[in-house]
Design a protein that fits this description.
Layout: H1 4-12, E1 15-19, E2 24-26, E3 35-40, E4 43-47, E5 55-60, E6 65-66, H2 68-73, E7 79-83, E8 87-92, H3 94-103, H4 107-129, H5 134-145, E9 159-161, H6 165-172, H7 176-188, E10 192-195, E11 198-201, H8 204-212
Antiparallel strand pairs: 1-8, 2-7, 3-6, 3-8, 4-5, 4-7, 9-11, 10-11
């Protein structure tokens, strides 16, 4: 949580932008720019850290911010962002970030909290991929993408994930047929519901319990 004064300084300088499903916000290797905060919709995060890629690595949900690394270091973009459904984003231009830090040099630490959040997600994803059981790896991926790996997301409504069985297979490091079989069993148990390129998480508590068994 950041101080209200910092939040106000950021929001006063943001521009609201709309993107259609499938539209790119920026790609890996793009020049540095401002930050983006997802207000509505969903974002697919693509990565290309080595010889392969870019490929889908994570799904961002409303409330998530991106772009701070390039803004603070002035280095090229390390990830790419694509709207997985119609989305609205807050854009904080690079010049406005400089303006905020110029007025309060300590504000860079608050911007850096975004990086810490991404680091926590990456560490958790690495830990999940070390699970030997392929079913548990698939379940952990679903929970992470739904934003409820360790805590409940939004109890008032099921959480939807915009991705395919191929995406799940890649993220869980299993064959597509294996991922499909796992998802069918979870659906039969009433834990999830599948549609075209979309999975609805119906019972996150039950899925988390599977990881503890």
């Amino acid at each position: 949580m950041t101080p209200p004064s910092f939040q106000q300084a950021v929001l006063q300088r943001c521009l609201l932008k709309s993107y259609k499903a499938g539209e790119s916000i920026y790609t890996v290797g793009d020049p540095p720019g401002g930050m983006y905060g997802l207000a509505f919709g969903g974002l697919g995060v693509s990565v290309a850290p080595g010889e392969r890629g870019p490929y889908f690595g994570h799904l961002a949900r409303p409330g998530t911010w991106f772009g701070e690394a390039a803004a603070l270091t002035r280095q090229p973009r390390r990830v790419g962002l694509t709207a997985t459904r119609n989305a609205e984003l807050l854009h904080l231009p690079l010049a406005k970030i400089d303006e905020i830090i110029g007025a309060d040099p300590a504000a860079w630490r608050l911007f850096a909290l975004v990086t810490i959040g991404h680091l926590d997600t990456a560490i958790g994803a690495c830990d999940d991929l070390m699970m030997r059981d392929h079913v548990k790896r698939c379940v952990a991926v679903l929970l992470r993408l739904a934003g409820c790996r360790h805590v409940a997301a939004t109890p008032s409504a099921p959480t939807e994930i915009d991705l395919s069985q191929d995406d799940i297979a890649t993220l869980a490091n299993v064959a597509r047929m294996t991922a499909g079989a796992v998802l069918r069993k979870l659906e039969q148990a009433g834990h999830i519901e599948q549609a075209y390129r979309r999975i609805r998480i119906l019972a996150p508590d039950a899925l988390r319990a599977m990881l503890r068994d």
